Amino acid sequence: MKLIICAGPATTGKTSVLRHIIRKLIEKDHRAAYLKIDVQFAEEDIKFQEEFRIPTRKVYSGELCPDHCSVMVLGDTIKWAQKEGAEYLFVETAGLCLRCSPYVTESLGLAVLEATSGINLPLKVGPMLSLADIAVITKIDRISQAEREVFRARIQEVAPDVRVREVNALYGIGIDPLVRQIEALPDVGDSLKLRGNPPVGTCSICVGKKEIGWEAHFGVLRPLDNQTFYRGQ
Amino acid sequence: MDIIQNISILGGQDKNRRLELVDRIDLKMGDMVSVVGPTGSGKTTLINDIELFADRNTPSGRRILINGEVPSPDYTENPASNPIALITQHTTFLSDLPVIEFLTIHARVRNNFRPEAGDLVRQTLDFANQLTGEPINETSRMMELSGGQTRALLIADAAVICNTPIILLDEVENAGIYRVRTLELLREYRKIFLFVTHDPRITLLSDYRIVMQNGSIVKVIHTTEEERSLALKVSQIDDVLTAMREKIRLGEVLVDADLEGLL
Predict the structure, then answer these.
(1) ipTM of this complex prediction, to 2 decimal places
(2) Which residues of B touch A (CB under 8 A)?
(3) Please, is A150 exposed, middle or buried when counting C-beta atoms within 10 Å of its C-beta (0-12, 13-18, 19+)?
(4) Would the pLDDT of B221 be above 70?
(5) Does the domain spanning A2-183 belong to CATH 3.40.50.300?
(6) CATH: 2.60.120.10, 3.40.50.300, 3.40.190.10, 3.60.20.10. Which one for B6-223?
(7) Which of A97, A130, A217, B40 is surrounded by the most beta carbons within 10 Å?
């Protein structure tokens, strides 16, 4: 079974991109399964189940960060999808604080970004973009060709090894190359690992210290004059 | 990049999924072509199909060939290899980069990061400033530009920075820019030009026009001798109207003499 993990900020069109990919795979008689991870509300599992008659699940991460939740449930999900006979497992997740990325080894990582989101977005999403395999750019019809190309250049500046694919998720234009790349994936093994280093998990603030200023804390400290671009590696 | 000699549009289907009436058009280097038709007839869709190198994978089902062959995937993956510049109807930018920085990045990506890309930025601004009544300040942020400045900059960017063999322009007459000057400057380049237009002057300058209806190309009309002989008169009428428009813009009052050019 092949594993595709799709991340991206809210409302960028992750679901629309996956809908086109899954439709094309089903047209070729492939079997897919789908997991949606969201914080408190999602209905894509029901929609995909109705539309494609494929096995779907959803998980609400609630008080956990969605990427943390993804690590917890991904092992079970792979077993579930294999039992359902899926050849392709799609996991869609709304990574939120942009310090982690949900991509694991042996999977295909898709970061879905919208062309309308401003020229600095690629600098702001950190490991969600830099650790992906493909940056899928949606809403390309909303901006001029010149601006689209500058947006692409901005992405390549931050993430030179990430492949950029521009799509129109409304009409499914530009989806075919993604499908070809997904079909060529190797099957997942049984020792998957996160690609990036997770951020620090516990800190003095997590355990309840409210004082302002790094001098009042312990563990990982960050004075004002120590800023580096965070890539999650 | 191979030298582009022609681009072919292979017909798809109209909005009711009926076969497109014209099943093939070959545009040759140097052709100046208009795309005409009512609003909603699919003019913008046609030039978008060309820019996307449609391969029966867009709603129109059309297919685009370059030099008679399926276009290289490199065209869409590397802007420096893309033989097409598209000037859309967008009248705003979303980017908050300063004009000079935006153009510098675009000049570098369109020219494979060659050092001479820097000169292109200056030339682009000079070109754009000939098209708009309000000069563009290179330190302005892109999103602050007016509609006219935005269109002027997009046209200049396509001609100078992209300088591609194929240029597609969507309704240049709606741009709030000097349309006649735009045409004069563009005609100095030898390219395939496609103008989506409602403008008689632009249409009569074209070698032929593609007529759209209900999402389909319904016919191709070659500009007739009679039409060509009208072109001069149409230009005069257009100049008179343009001058009147400019007077209104400047808060002046129109007089009988404003129509004298029509004698």
Answers:
(1) 0.89
(2) 48, 51-52, 57-59, 73, 76-77, 79, 85-88, 90, 93-97, 102, 105-106, 108-110, 142, 154, 157-158, 161-162
(3) buried
(4) yes
(5) yes
(6) 3.40.50.300
(7) A130
